[in-house]
Design brief:
The protein is an alpha+beta fold. The chain has ten helices and twelve strands. The chain folds into two domains: about 160 residues, Ribosomal Protein S5, domain 2, CATH 3.30.230; about 120 residues, GHMP kinase, C-terminal domain (Alpha-Beta Plaits, 2-Layer Sandwich), CATH 3.30.70.890. It is about 35% helix and about 30% strand. Strands 1, 2, 3, 4, 5, 6, 8 and 12 form an eight-stranded mixed β-sheet that branches. Strands 9-10-7-11 form a four-stranded antiparallel β-sheet, sandwiched between helices. Helix 1 packs across helix 3. About 50% of the residues are buried. Bound molecules: adenosine-5'-triphosphate (ATP). The site of adenosine-5'-triphosphate (ATP) has 22 residues, from helix 1 and helix 2.
């Protein structure tokens, strides 16, 4: 019998999330600069008679354990494509905030895909794994690839971009925000306005490559932020508390409600995290660095 396979997979933050007008298919064209950060879930695939999912971690009770779990969907799609039954137990060690705009579900989808591929000895070509990821969701291909990348289309067409090292603090809010609800609020706020085609500015890509936190702080931007703030006005207090505590810049992570703070170094990260926790404007904080590698199988044992 095959041995269990564990895959570690990072969360993401968007340093630029440019959103275009709604397309006829309901999706939005995006120019999305993804950065993988050193906050990880681990997904273990073990031999089993059928498909089952378990989850542990502080937010485990918010994670669906049925076929709605992206890890289970990944296993099903891979098995179907390969003409086998999805006989696997998937265990998720969940550290990425749930429904926090950090692509935690997408991360688990990418991790389960890689773990099942290894468990079942399929050796599926990378390009095919990326196709399955895109089928699972717009953010899933990036979870597989990691590092730093520009995502276009609905975010799933990836071009790797160079990135220096940066330090981050994440403030985790109480409760989640639904990504479709935030896009609907974006559409509502955009009504009657001309929405330009989304693009990532050369200044931002230069700043990312340079590793200069002041330059990156000046160019961070998220077009979904007004919509997230409109649905959750108290996030403005979290953003203010982080910048008051010495963060170089703060922004809503993806569709929120997690907020991300760019800081100068590890000491500053610890200070800003402590101040945010003391401010009472968030549930908890996490400190991380970027870029982080994409989904990776851990050595056995
Ligand atoms: P994104 O940044 O990609 O928009 P998110 O970080 O805001 O996503 P997720 O943590 O991926 O949000 O969860 C969104 C919803 O997806 C959850 O409320 C949950 O119902 C569902 N979900 C499905 N699979 C998972 C999973 N493995 N982990 C967490 N949530 C999952």
């Amino acid at each position: 019998m095959s041995r269990p396979v564990t895959v570690r997979v990072p969360a993401k933050v968007n340093v630029r999330l440019a959103v275009g007008a709604a397309r006829p298919d309901g999706f939005h064209d995006l120019a999305n600069v993804f950065l993988a950060v050193s906050l990880y879930d681990e997904v273990t695939a073990a031999p089993a008679d059928g498909l089952t999912v378990t989850c542990e971690g502080p937010d485990a009770d918010q994670v669906p354990l049925d076929r709605g779990n992206l890890a289970a969907r990944a296993a099903e799609i891979l098995a179907k494509r390969s003409g086998i039954l999805p006989a696997v137990h998937l265990h998720i060690d969940k550290r990425i905030p749930v429904a926090g705009g950090m692509a935690g579900g997408s991360a688990d989808g990418a991790a389960a895909l890689l773990a099942c591929d290894a468990l079942w000895g399929l050796d599926t070509p990378r390009a095919e794994l990326l196709d399955i990821c895109a089928e699972l969701g717009s953010d899933v291909p990036f979870s597989l690839v990691g590092g730093a990348a520009l995502g276009t289309g609905r975010g799933e067409i990836l071009t790797p971009v160079p990135a220096g090292t940066f330090h981050w603090v994440f403030a985790v809010a109480d409760g989640g925000l639904s990504t479709p609800a935030v896009f609907r609020e974006f559409d509502r706020l955009a009504e009657g306005r001309d929405i330009p085609a989304p693009e990532a500015s050369p200044a931002l890509l230069d700043a990312l490559a340079s590793g200069d936190p002041d330059a990156l702080a000046a160019t961070l931007a998220n077009d979904l932020q007004p919509a997230a703030l409109s649905l959750r006005p108290r996030l403005a207090d979290t953003l203010a508390a982080g910048t008051r505590a010495g963060a170089l810049a703060g922004l809503v992570s993806g569709s929120g409600p997690t907020t991300a703070f760019l800081v100068r170094d590890a000491e500053s990260a610890a200070r800003v995290a402590a101040a945010l926790e003391a401010s009472g404007t968030c549930r908890t904080t996490r400190v991380a660095t970027s870029p982080a590698p994409g989904a990776t199988a851990l050595p056995e044992g």
